[in-house]
Amino acid sequence: MSSIPGTTPPLLQVEGLIKRFPARGGKTVHAVEDVNFSVKRGTTVGLVGESGSGKTTAGRTLLRLIEPTGGRAIFDGTDIFALPDKEMRAYRRRMQIIFQDPFSSLNPRMRIEAILGEALDACGYPRGSKRKDRVNELLSLVGLQPDHARRFPHEFSGGQRQRIGIARALAVEPDFVVADEPVSALDVSVQAQVLNLLSDLQKRLGLTLLFIAHDLSVVEYLCDEVVVMYLGRVMERGPSRLVYTSPRHPYTKALLATAPIPDPERRRLHVPLAGDIPSPINPPSGCVFRTRCAHAIDACAQTVPTADHIGGDHHVACIRHRELAEIS
Q1: Residue 298 burial (CB < 10 Å; 0-12/13-18/19+)?
Q2: Which fold does the domain 12-94+176-284+307-318 belong to in CATH?
Q3: Using one digit for the tens of pLDDT, what is the confidence trace for 251-306?
């Protein structure tokens, strides 16, 4: 996955990412297996899949909140997986996370000014009037008021708490932010407000985002590129417009079929997904999606599909994608 001469290398390049966890009885949880993708500077990449697909584990492993089992993560030219802890600390300021649950990610005993102050302490920000000004600036940045700094988390709504979580992530002026399903715990009416805020901040601050979600409609609105994961592996990746208008993997098509359609006159082009995702302790042989795929053949049980390039930056991991494209 080396860069082409004359082009700008991505801010983050993920190569062969693996994360496995030990389980009882000497078994292994295959949470993430051989994941490859890149994130260009100043763009938003959506990491999509059902619960249990490995997307959150992948995101946290890239920040080394969870240590990887294998692979490389080249961040701005440096393999951060190879760095010792002391050298990794220098990258913490540049890589931040917005957590999924705004209710449990904020300390209920701390005022907002102290919560944001902790993040500022981590980068050596001076105390006093400059600290107060910076806290007020962060609150304003996410659409809150300066007097909110003296309140406790329980005095805010879910949407406001998530805004505080976003302000905390941005306090150290990071280059790269992992947004781990940041709107899934919010009411639908509030989700759009937070998504609009993230979109605005990404443009204003030139942020690079990895946006984790299970809702493809959310990702379509916000993301430049999409990476579709299933049971720890990447099924399809590419520019959002191609993945949404010309999906090539049966799993991507099934996810699109489950997304809500605002027009009652429109017919669904694909069949929604049935059944449950298998256990990552004992994943299916060959293509991990084959046990739920209506197009699976015997060869699918024998071969782990590689990501075939099908034009542009569009890739799909399906041994039948060419013949399925002809019949779709």
Answers
A1: exposed
A2: Rossmann fold (3.40.50)
A3: 999 998 876 655 555 555 556 677 889 999 999 999 999 999 999 999 999 999 99
